[in-house]
Specification:
The protein is mainly α. Helices cover about 75% and strands about 0% of the residues. The longest helix is centred in the last third of the chain and has 31 residues.
């Protein structure tokens, strides 16, 4: 499979919307439009009688749509969905949505990436089954699938460890805005370094088992808010000299098990809370919103990275981190 095979498009009307501007301008247009939409409608959201706090039951349908949009637009673009889901609701006065709600609406992102990469997943799965039957363990599909499986283990191990060892994870210092700002800046610098020194020569057919393991280790860093799962895996992929679109494509495949497991674990906790309308409606609305905007973001990013570099994300992450630090400085002075 060549990277050309992944240049799938959205339905014509959505594709036309994305193609209105050159690639770099499109990203700023998308982010700026989303931010402006949030700020413009925030009085409406804050005017709702049931102003939300961190509990899922306190969110209304409008806020769930917005949080799903933020999740969808930032999950696969390397700018950290966790950071934006923490910072934007706080700026709007909604409070931190918390780990549970954030993880559950990620299931919408999983639905989108499964839809978009279904042909890749089908080929890898069929290739693994064929390789096992023939004992052909050097098969590219087998080693690719094994790399994804092994690459998922670090984030599962560290994620479970954090859940068991850190009391009240939602309110722990690990989820503070200071940590988010620092992580965003550090990852921006690492992405810049990887962009500079990478040869960008290795394509999808040249992926190796160790690529999955190494990118999986990098993926576990995303447990720190502000790091970005896609950002850490794409950055490590560039350090491994992968083509930009190949790094993104494999990052998406590698993220499927991890995001799915996290979402299902938290979904169980939501179900245990009791599925009243106050809980189930915001969850369903958030998942649907997340799925739609995730698909738009995936389709856009793959096309963008086939022709462009990642510097726009470097500058955005630097600006995002510095904006948070500046806001903290002003608040305490």
């Amino acid at each position: 499979m060549s990277d050309a095979k992944i240049s799938k498009t959205l339905p014509p009307k959505y594709s036309a919307m994305i193609q209105l501007k050159p690639p770099t301008e499109r990203l700023f247009y998308l982010i700026t439009l989303s931010s402006g939409f949030l700020l413009a409608l925030s009085p409406f959201a804050l005017a709702q009688e049931d102003t939300p706090d961190a509990a899922i039951a306190k969110f209304n349908w409008f806020q769930a749509i917005i949080l799903g949009m933020v999740q969808g637009l930032t999950e696969f673009i390397p700018i950290s969905s966790t950071a934006h889901l923490k910072v934007i609701p706080v700026l709007l006065g909604w409070g931190d949505p918390g780990v549970a709600f954030t993880a559950v609406i990620q299931l919408g992102s999983i639905a989108a990436v499964l839809w978009y990469l279904w042909s890749d997943l089908s080929q890898i799965t069929k290739g693994m089954v064929t390789a096992i039957r023939k004992s052909d363990y050097q098969s590219h599909d087998f080693r690719l699938g094994l790399g994804i499986a092994l690459g998922t283990l670090p984030i599962v191990f560290f994620g479970l460890s954090m859940k068991l060892l850190i009391a009240d994870l939602d309110n722990s210092p690990l989820r503070s805005v200071e940590v988010i700002a620092g992580a965003s800046i550090v990852m921006a610098l690492l992405l810049a370094l990887s962009e500079k020194i990478s040869s960008h020569k290795r394509n999808f057919e040249q992926l190796r088992l160790q690529d999955g393991v190494l990118m999986g280790l990098a993926q576990s860093l995303a447990l720190i808010p502000g790091v970005s799962r896609s950002g850490s895996t794409m950055t490590s992929g560039l350090f491994l000299n992968l083509e930009r679109a190949t790094a993104a494509r494999f990052s998406f495949l590698l993220g499927i098990p991890a995001i799915t497991l996290a979402g299902l674990v938290e979904l169980k906790e939501v179900v245990d809370m009791g599925l009243s309308n106050d809980i189930i409606i915001p969850v369903i609305v958030g998942v649907i919103s997340s799925a739609f905007f995730s698909y738009v973001a995936i389709a856009w990013l793959i096309r963008y990275l086939q022709k462009r570099d990642t510097w726009v994300f470097v500058w955005y992450r630097l600006g995002f981190g510095l904006f948070i630090l500046g806001s903290i400085f002003i608040q305490f002075n």
